[in-house]
Amino acid sequence: MRKAEQKPDYYTQREWNRILARERVEKKRNRNLVFLTILLLALTACAIYAVYFYVLRSHDTSLRAAYSVSSPVQGTYDSLKSMTADPFSTGLCVTDTDVNPDSVFITSTEGGLFDINNQDVLYAKDIFEQRPQASLTKLMTALVALKHGNPDDLVTVTETAFDIEEGSSVCELHLGDQLTLKQLLYGMLIASGNDAAQMVAEHVGGSVSQFVDMMNQEAAEIGATHTHFVNPSGLTADGHYTCAYDVYLVFNALMKYDMFLDIISRKNYYAEYKDASGDAYAMTWDTTDHYLDGSAALPDNVTVYGGKTGTTDAAGACLCIMSKDAYGNPYVSVILNSQDKSQLYVDMNQILSLASA
Predict the structure, then answer these.
(1) pTM
(2) 7 catalytically annotated
(3) Which structural domains are found in the chain, ordered by start?
(4) Residues of the chain with pLDDT under 70
């Protein structure tokens, strides 16, 4: 670059000063351009980092926060808990012994009262003793059907429906009748129809034996470890048993289904369907629950919502119901092996008195 003391002879001083001034302006312009370029690069880098930090990395910033014992991410207890499966007892009433067995007197072999909201066992008498369960079996049949079946499916009655004990409770189905699975479930639980239970099992399981396998698998999944099924109806058979606590577990699982709650609350159900000829046919199925049909005295300060009955010579009279106290709090109560239906409701009223205490 030219210097002032090296002015060429062929330039006048005025010309040379003009050249130097022009060079100073050019140098300043170049410096400003370099500065602006550096500033622009810095701003671009900041923008790129901002996008990365606030957009791409925003979802894991909490994982990089400072250590905190109370933090749901970094806290020692919560962090370990998040990697641990919920225990079986979550949301359930649990006991391993009798509870308040002397608070009321019942003649039935087993009885239990379970406070659903508070997840508390209010009464328990021998609730883990294995016994035949009669038609309380149909609670598990309903649970498997609601879990794996489509209520709108059309089912044609086959010979399977009549593979039951003569004289046992039925919905009076006929060969070739066409009903929905929903109608069969209503008949099975309200009228305790063994023929309906057979058709539910065959339709949902492909065969009765395969459906019974599904029942036993479901029992294992919900923790009903004192239970084993041989048929879907509850007719007496070797190796077919349960206990009062397992009945509660099945009923508790069923309470998640609105259809089940509707079924057990009904005094009767009117079903219209087609017979084998395709002609219209209708049946009305009445409840077997004496609380609902008015033949059993209702307990004081407790509303019986509904449930399921069961009776055989081997199982005695059995009952599982849902009730509510004066404040609307729900309870499930179970009795197995009462001496007869009359004593069954006397004993149940004794148990339900604890819900209104």
Answers:
(1) 0.77
(2) no
(3) 1-84 (no CATH), 110-352 (3.40.710.10)
(4) 1-5, 7, 10-11, 16, 52-88
